[in-house]
Predict the 3D structure of the following.
Amino acid sequence: DHLDQTAGSICGQLAHAAHAKKRSPIHSLCWSSEGRRLVTGNRDGEFTLWRGTDFAPPDQSVVTVISAHTVPEPSQINAITLRRDGLSFISGDSVGTIKYWEWTMTPLESIERTHDSSPVQGLSVSPTDEKFASCADDGRVRVWDYKYKKEEACMKGHDWKVLSVDWHPSLALLASGSRDNSVRLWDPRAARSSESDGCL
């Protein structure tokens, strides 16, 4: 089984390409925990669930397509991140909406108008799965309590849009990258419930 050999493999050539029936630019994607499915988010607010490993013919690669961020109108899905439980994931869109999902594509919760309705550009989950971070065009990195859907910290320091964020695998430490050409490290505990600079 080729899945057992992936850890020591380097892909030197294109292995597979597929297209959904409806053409729409893909802005985000995420593997399932076992690596057999891939979910993508497009400009029209849709998720497409793909077969990720069986190299099916292009017209058979799509498992399902659902309208995910389309109410009241389609919103581009800019970010998708898998939770560490492997059973659910989080998505963010171009109007500041963050949504929780099961891998069955069942919606769980929604947080509206985050980042003052600025486009969410990145999401990352904490090592414990209890928190997650988001970044957006408002130039902020925000930390959220997953269970209570509550913002716990807002960190400012970038001079432009924040395009990426990633939580350290084991520490209370965040890294973010911005259009201002800087990378910053953050201690979210230093910016609890305020806009103080938690940058290290």
User: Anything to note?
Assistant: The chain has a mean pLDDT of 87.
